[in-house]
Amino acid sequence: MRSLPHPDVQEIALDQVLSALADPIRRVIVSQLAGGHDDQACIAFDLPVTKSTSTHHFRVLREAGIISQRYRGTAILNCLRDEELAERFPGLLDAVLAEDSEVQGTTATAAAARRL
Amino acid sequence: MRSLPHPDVQEIALDQVLSALADPIRRVIVSQLAGGHDDQACIAFDLPVTKSTSTHHFRVLREAGIISQRYRGTAILNCLRDEELAERFPGLLDAVLAEDSEVQGTTATAAAARRL
């Protein structure tokens, strides 16, 4: 089984986490993972972007240490590394998601869509 | 007196705030403003960057709504918009600064210096 590289929790860097979360599409992904069940396939996400752009966003999130990704057959399953992030940067993810939860499905998605 | 443009509190955008805070030099500036007195001149900051790079970082912070800048004579005085940020994105600035306060003066500054 192929596996994808992930940073260890101590290697997770604030620069990279903030940069990854600065994108509204990536925050939509993180919000959906935070609100959903543990394992979600990339294809389960309803994102207003092309497949290759979507793949790029998931990779940025994985490399920043925000999500984990693993293969199940030909699908990639995604999981939020929320406990590790809370250990590394207490309160950060909650603060970011709190803002987006207020506008989720309206402003954030519309703003993201306008950028395409 | 010249004045510089600032976003209103409701115009402060999470994308721009996170993107601005993703830079370690800009977090050093924000940390120093958070720990210091209200008004600090740009020249009071000990940053391992050139004057023009420093000016750029302060501008990015102002345009993101993180700091206010105003002229006093020929100096620019900087002030953290911490109360407005706390109103707009509760907990965010604290979460970001908490991390950097642990490594301030060591890892963060060294990492920032390595990027120059």
List low-confidence stretches of chain A: 104-116
Mean pLDDT of chain A: 85
Strand content of chain A: 5-15%
The number of helical elements of chain A comes to 6
Q: What is the CA-atom radius of gyration of chain A, in angstroms?
A: 13 Å
**Helix share, percent of chain A:** 40-55%
How many β-strand runs of chain A?
Answer: 3
How is the main sheet of chain A built? 3 strands, antiparallel
Sum up the overall morphology of chain A in one term: globular
- What's the helix-strand series of chain A? HHEHEEHHH
Q: Structural class, judged by helices and strands of chain A? A: alpha+beta
- Strand order across the largest sheet of chain A: 1-3-2
- Multimeric state of these chains? homodimer
First-residue to last-residue Cα separation of chain A: 34 Å
Largest interface: A-B, 22 and 22 residues
Compact summary:
2 copies of one chain form a homodimer. Chain A is an alpha+beta fold and 116 residues long. In chain A, 53% of the residues lie in helices and 12% in strands.
How does this structure look, described?
The structure is a homodimer of 116-residue chains. Chain A has 116 residues and is of the alpha+beta class. Chain A contains six helices and three strands. In chain A, helix 1 (14-21) runs antiparallel to helix 3 and helix 2 crosses helix 5 (92-103).
Structure keywords:
116 residues, homodimer, three-stranded antiparallel sheet, alpha+beta, 3 strands, disordered C terminus
